[in-house]
Amino acid sequence: MSSRNKMNVLWLTLTVLVFSALVKLGFWQNSRALEKEQRLARIEQLKSQNPLSLQQVNLLAVNENINDMPVAIEGVFDEKSVFLLDNQVNKGRLGYRAYQVLIAEQQAVLVNLGWVQGSINRQELPNVKSLLGKHLIHGNVRLIEVGIQLQEQVFSDVQWPLRIQQVELDKFSTLINRQLLPFVIYLDVGEKIGFEKNWQPIVMPPEKHRAYAFQWFSLAIAWFILMVWAKFFAKKTNDNNQNNNSSLKKEA
């Protein structure tokens, strides 16, 4: 294969690979937008549903998607088991999201109590007063998606309240010597107990995903046009060089 043919193959391969990757990213953002729209529609539908008990949620979890389902649970908070999720920003302020274990129907479930502001001194934890006694709480089920961890959480010297970088229910179960249910209850905004309730079921709206999709598709088109132009320019330059060389040979 000549050097020119090799360059053509390289150009074609690079063009197709980058173009395909950009288009794929655009379709992925579109699919994420569709997922968000479907979830928002489901949340609106669930608002008209009567809250479920913990037992009902456990039964439904076998065959149904329990995410965002409304619940009403009566139980006793474990005074000791308070977790503070680090690096939670609210209105430009850095703080923590507080969680506490609730014992209900002989089962343990982690409850999101809301957001608390942190101190400028990173070694100082906020003064979080744990909830005591029996409470009837209203909230929504939320399944926890474990994200990418730069460093594994290791709990060797445990002091309560415990600062955490991510919610890991299996590890928390080991710490409290009690199996936690595989979801978290987020308190309703109207609940008087807890702290500032600012959580959103969907952080990035569908419109933003579609905007990103448009950007990726635009980049794909721009890349294709650029590579076609580069190929045409390179061919034209090569043809001009060949013509100049031919003219020089004739003159010689």
Strand order of the largest sheet: 1-2-3-6-4
Residue windows where pLDDT falls under 50 for at least 5 positions: none
Instruction: Estimate what percentage of residues fall within beta strands.
Output: 25-35%
Biggest beta sheet attributes: 5 strands, mixed, barrel
- First-residue to last-residue Cα separation: 31 Å
Report the count of strand segments.
6
Q: Helicity level, as a percent range?
A: 40-55%
Order of helices and strands: HHEEEEEHEH
Shape: elongated
Helix count? 4
Which structural category do the helix and sheet elements fall into? alpha/beta
Mean pLDDT across the residues is 86
- Whole-number radius of gyration? 28 Å
Structure commentary:
- There is one protein chain.
- The chain has helices spanning 3-46, 54-60, 169-176, 206-251, and strands spanning 70-90, 93-104, 107-117, 134-142, 162-164, 180-187.
- The chain is elongated.
- It is an alpha/beta fold.
- A hairpin with a 2-residue loop joins strand 1 (70-90) and strand 2 (93-104).
- It has four helices and six strands, in the order H-H-E-E-E-E-E-H-E-H.
- The longest helix has 46 residues, at 206-251.
- Helix 1 packs antiparallel against helix 4 (206-251).
- The two termini are 31 Å apart.
- It has a five-stranded mixed barrel.
